[in-house]
Design a protein that fits this description.
The chain is an alpha/beta fold and 442 residues long. It folds into 2 domains: 177 residues, Lyase, Ornithine Decarboxylase, Chain A, domain 1, CATH 2.40.37.10; 247 residues, Alanine racemase (TIM Barrel), CATH 3.20.20. Helices cover 29% and strands 24% of the residues. Strands 4, 14, 15, 16, 17, 18, 19, 20 and 21 form a 9-stranded mixed beta sheet that branches. The chain has an 8-stranded parallel β-barrel with strand order 5-6-7-8-9-11-12-13, surrounded by 5 helices. The chain has a 3-stranded antiparallel beta sheet with strand order 1-2-3. The protein binds pyridoxal-5'-phosphate. Pyridoxal-5'-phosphate binds next to helix 11.
């Protein structure tokens, strides 16, 4: 069973000091306030404005090393494909390309962004339930490493396109193992009722069919049961089923060279206990070590989530007979996770004085016209003045990538911190960009 979701009792929230102590890339300096890898966030906010995403390159590198170290420590020769959907910034993709990672992509756009960032095509894996004919053609043209097929219908489409273009697609079957990952319903992907993957019981029959199709070379299996997974049991269950399938396919005379173990490893946003990469490695090893398969995985959130934050300013504090509303200039159009998944994110005052000032419960919201535009309720925070900066933590995954321009709010800037320096890696979207592609009807 996965760990239960943390209780939403604000009295058990970690303190600002606890949040920072558990994230060694963050520190409060008495003069300069909150630092990310030694760089004062107030200086970035003063120069670039808010809202602004800020990423720690060192943290991403360190986490990649920890993850790959756990895999090799378990004796696994693992190819890591960074799940681009978690953060598709060119700087992030280039960093992982330099580390030797490949990319797990789910659209033609992600495929092209990955190539442009220096990911070799041979290390790109394409997943997704609705790849269009144009996207499949693109994948074949670039001769990417592997296409994870999710249905019989897609297989037929791919075979036709590959044949027509004189190519051969290396195909893995993404199999739906019918395992509940115990995560938020909206990001669970491995139950029979979820749209993803080939139904487990159809896999052997369809693999035989695929192996005989023109333009298709079947290379193995893939599975991905969800995101923000906080227990190892669902992984063990899913991997046991996939291992059984490897054996069954081989008994039927089929070749299975590779297993793609997916992503999904969760992170503690609040005070959840999350499995370690070593624990995940042990689950993979337990299922696959004696099967003689090449292993791959597709982590996203674990690598980049903790390495990013969203810097925001207080617009005003609205007093009410209940707890006050701290209204930020960041909103659900920037970071949608609280509105979409009821996600908890740490919120830390940037000023060191604010961080130790007496706190009281407040509701933290954005200015968007939806009550769902709420970052936190009954959050213990000091009396913040208009203009005070706050950092919304663990926003490096499924943050900027999920932004929209709802309420005609431009996309926030993105900043990269590396080696004691910072630079803008995406300019704030100019307001004119919101309408420059529009036309009045003829
Ligand atoms: C196919 C696939 N692989 C990998 C991932 C990455 O998941 P996570 O960011 O939780 O590691 C996802 C996201 O849910 C996915 O859909």
């Amino acid at each position: 069973m996965a760990a239960p979701s943390p209780p939403n009792d604000p009295s058990t929230d970690p303190s600002v000091q606890d949040l920072i102590a558990l994230r060694p890339w963050l520190k409060h300096d008495a003069m300069d306030g909150l630092l990310l890898d030694g760089v004062p966030l107030a200086g970035i906010a003063d120069t670039v404005g808010t809202p602004t995403w800020v990423y720690s390159a060192a943290t991403m590198r360190a986490r990649y090393k920890t993850l790959t170290g756990a895999m090799s420590g378990a004796g696994l020769d693992m190819q890591v494909h960074f799940a681009v959907k978690a953060n598709d910034s060119r700087a992030v993709l280039s960093l992982f390309a330099e580390q030797g990672a490949g990319a797990d992509v789910v659209s033609g756009g992600e495929l092209l962004k990955s190539l442009r960032a220096g990911m070799p095509a041979s290390r790109i894996v394409y997943s997704g339930v609705g790849k269009s004919a144009a996207e499949l053609r693109l994948a074949l043209e670039h001769d990417i490493g592997q296409i994870n097929v999710e249905s019989a219908e897609e297989l037929a489409m791919l075979s036709a396109i590959a044949t027509a273009t004189g190519r051969t697609a290396r195909v893995a079957f993404r199999v739906n193992p019918d395992v509940d990952a115990g995560t938020n319903d909206k990001i669970a992907t491995g139950r029979a009722t979820d749209k993803f993957g080939i139904p487990f019981d159809d896999a052997v029959r369809l693999y035989a069919h695929a192996a005989a199709l023109p333009g298709i070379r079947t290379v193995g299996l893939a599975t991905h049961i969800g995101s923000q997974i906080l227990g190892l049991a669902p992984y063990r269950d899913a991997y046991a089923r996939i291992a059984d399938l490897v054996i069954a396919l081989r008994e039927h005379g089929h070749t299975v060279e590779t297993v793609d173990c997916g992503g999904g490893l969760g992170i503690p946003y609040r005070n959840e206990s999350a499995p370690s990469p070593a624990g995940l490695a042990a689950a993979m090893r337990g299922a696959f070590h004696n099967l003689d398969v090449r292993l791959a995985m597709e982590p996203g959130r674990w690598l980049v989530g903790p390495a990013g934050l969203l810097l925001a300013s207080v617009v005003l504090v609205k007093q009410t007979p209940l707890e006050p509303f701290i209204v930020l200039d960041a909103a659900m159009n920037d970071l949608v996770r609280p509105a979409m998944y009821d996600a908890w994110h740490g919120i830390v005052p940037v000023s060191a004085i604010d961080a130790v000032a007496p706190a009281r419960p407040a509701t933290v919201v954005g200015p968007v016209c939806e009550s769902g535009d709420t970052f936190a309720r009954s959050r213990s925070l000091p009396a913040l003045s208009p203009g005070a900066y706050v950092a919304i933590l663990d926003a490096g995954a499924y943050g900027a990538v999920m932004s929209s321009t709802y309420n005609a709010r431009p996309m926030a800037a993105e900043v990269w911190v590396d080696n004691g320096r910072w630079s803008v890696i995406r300019d704030r979207q100019p307001i004119e960009a919101l309408w420059e592609r529009e036309r009045l009807p003829a």
